[in-house]
Task: structure prediction
Amino acid sequence: MVVGCRAAVLSGYGEPARIRDIQTDTLRDREILVRMAGVGICHTDLTAAAGRIPFPLPAVLGHEGSGVVESIGPGVDSLHPGDHVVLSFAACRNCRNCTGGHPAYCADFAALNYSGYRPDGTTTLRSGAEEVHGGWFGQSSFATHAVVGEAGAVKVADDLPLALLGPLGCGIQTGAGALMRVLRPHRAPRSSSSAPVRSDWGRSWRPLPSDARPSSWSIRCPPAGHWPSRSAPPRRWTARTPGSAASCAG
Ligand SMILES: [Zn+2]
Ligand SMILES: [Zn+2]
Result:
C-alpha cells in the first residue's frame, strides 16, 4: 500500500531541501514502515547534500532516525506495529564481514546504503510517477515516514524518550565504537588510582568513577589485521590526562 508522507526532498546538490508531500512505496519482504519521532543531522547528510557523496536526486537524506513501527511487510517476524525503534544502516547480514560481526564493513554496503535503490531496482519513495531516492543509510529519515529493512531497526523500551534516540544509529554508536572497540582506554600500570577503566579487548567495561582522575591512561589498538583496512596498526598508544596530546608508545 502506498502511503502519503511529508519529506525534506533534495532536488539539487548545494540547494536547500524542500518540504514536499510524497509517498512511500508498498512494503516489500522484510521491510517496515516507521513513523518518525525524531532525527539527528550528521555531517554525512551535509556532505551528500553538497554533492560530495554520489547519491541520485531527487532524494531524501537523514540517517539518525527513531520512531514507531506503523506497519510491517511480508516476512517480518521480529517487530510489530506500535514498537518503538531506533534506525541504523543497512547490511546484507550474509557476507563474510557481516557474519564476522562487522556489518559496517558489509560487502554490499555502498549498494545498500548509497545507491538510492532497493536491490530489485525500485525506490522506497515516490512522488506520483516520479522516483524519489530513499534508503539513505537504510532509512532516509528526514521525513514523517521511512521504509526500513527489518534488520536495520532496533526495538527499544516504550518509556525511553524516543525523539532523542535517533543519534544512537550513527553518531553515538560511531563514537562509542571508536572508544570501546578501537581505542579501549584502560588505566596505565603506573597510575596511582585503583579504579579500573577498561581492562582489555572484548572484556568487561566499567566506567570511570566521577572522582577518579588518573595521571595517565593507556589505549590499546586492535590486533594487527583485525580491521580490513589496517594491516599493521600501532600496538599501543599512550594518552595523558584530558587536555594533552596522545603519543605513540610502541
Ligand atoms: Zn552519520
Ligand atoms: Zn554484508
